[in-house]
Amino acid sequence: MSNLVEIRDLHFAYGSRPILQNLRMDFPRGKLIAVMGGSGCGKTTVLRLIGGQIRAQQGTVKVAGKVVGDLDTEELYGLRRKMGMLFQFGALFTDLSVFDNVAFPLREHTDLPEEIIRDLVLMKLHAVGLRNAHKLKPSEISGGMARRVALARAIALDPELIMYDEPFAGLDPISMGVTANLIRNLNDTLGSTSILVSHDVHETFAIADYVYFMSSGKIVAEGTPAEMRASEDPYVKQFVNAAPDGPVPFHYPGKSLAEDLGLGSPA
Ligand SMILES: Nc1ncnc2c1ncn2[C@@H]1O[C@H](COP(=O)(O)OP(=O)(O)OP(=O)(O)O)[C@@H](O)[C@H]1O
């Protein structure tokens, strides 16, 4: 099976601060691939490299066979049209109705007549169960519904690749489950490829085909959700079991408590 996105030998630094090291990742067409790991390990940076918002200092990111870092502005713009992105707390335009929020990318990126835009928007809203809410403003709907509208907007242009950055953040458990199912169903019905950045193990394992675990800018484990559940890797175990201490220490590194309290030999 061919990969829609391929990352090879990737190194990335913000200034002199290394963020990603020696990454190799495959995102096969049609699959839903999760990228998991603690806060600040570099997950969002991976999405930004795929979207071409930033460029790697070393290594390659290929999307649909093209090296993203080599594209000029116009080519990048063309590539981005094939990508749908749902960012953390995917903010809606508060002054626009639900309908106009979803219509926005269609009006911005296509010359389609309004009657066609109307049908497309209603179909996308139907897919997320909110066709009948199309006249409402974001202030009149719940947080879970707003996330679904953002999802409808992200898929408005039938993207080949959909990237989700923490789509479950701030949602109640029911809305989380609804959003997770939608992400899986949309991937399958649109025939797209999805990248899901999340630290929510339960929802992510329920829908992902394959999982990459990152820590400090490196891939530390990868496999299917079942393989990850059975993994003996201490980092994966700590993450999957949400253990407060393990390879990721609870205490910020430094002096021991005994030293700080002047109690003699360091522990
Ligand atoms: N524009 C920037 N300039 C400098 N450092 C940055 C910039 N953006 C992110 N970083 C740093 O890069 C590291 C990786 O950030 P990134 O957002 O990719 O992490 P993440 O795994 O997505 O974290 P989270 O789950 O908290 O969103 C972090 O330490 C962050 O502080």
Automatic annotation (TrEMBL):
Residues 5-241 form the ABC transporter domain. Transmembrane segments: none annotated. CDD domains: ABC_Org_Solvent_Resistant (cd03261). The keyword DNA-binding does not apply. GO terms for molecular function: ATP binding. SUPFAM superfamilies: P-loop containing nucleoside triphosphate hydrolases. The keyword Transport applies. Keywords: ATP-binding, Cell membrane, Membrane, Nucleotide-binding, Transport. It comes from the Bacteria. InterPro entries: AAA+_ATPase, ABC_transporter-like_ATP-bd, ABC_transporter-like_CS, P-loop_NTPase. PROSITE patterns: ABC_TRANSPORTER_1, ABC_TRANSPORTER_2. This is ABC transporter ATP-binding protein. It comes from Massilia solisilvae.
